[in-house]
Here is the input.
Amino acid sequence: MPHTGTTRRRVLAATGAAAAGLLAGCSGDASHGGTSTSGLREAGVREAAARAEAALRARTSAASRALVDRYDAVLAMHPALRDRLAPLRDQAAQHATALGPAAAPSPAPSSPPAVSPVPADAEEAVKQLADAERLTSDAQLAALATAPPELARLLASVAASGAGHAYLLAGGAR
Here is the structure.
């Protein structure tokens, strides 16, 4: 015979439903007409962090692109260095791509950036490339302090590669 009236099972179900309703009402969800200041603050922090990362990526990518332009200028002036410089130039181009904006690529500049004159002496040109690699690597290392973790790992790797390039260009592997 079914038991009518209040049962332990019905009391527990009603209590659970009431508790769930109270918890949902206290969530502070902004989608129900209220505004959550902590939610807005978190969104603002995320947006500021995204802007800072995009600016950092743009700066470090531009430095790598300038280095590629320097390689191109040296290779144009001293084509006999192609075997020695082409692999390093290609890696610098990969670094520029990897450090580029995470979103859509930025439009190409309307005119190529100015590159300082390339010395007529091939060894002096390579020495200047080594200095440019070192400066770029140092700038990327300095950027680590403000980079988010994933970008910091990439910057550390690219900076290490650039330091290796500088070493090779300076004659360290002869």
User: Anything to note?
Assistant: Helices lie at 8-25, 37-77, 82-99, 122-143, 149-169.
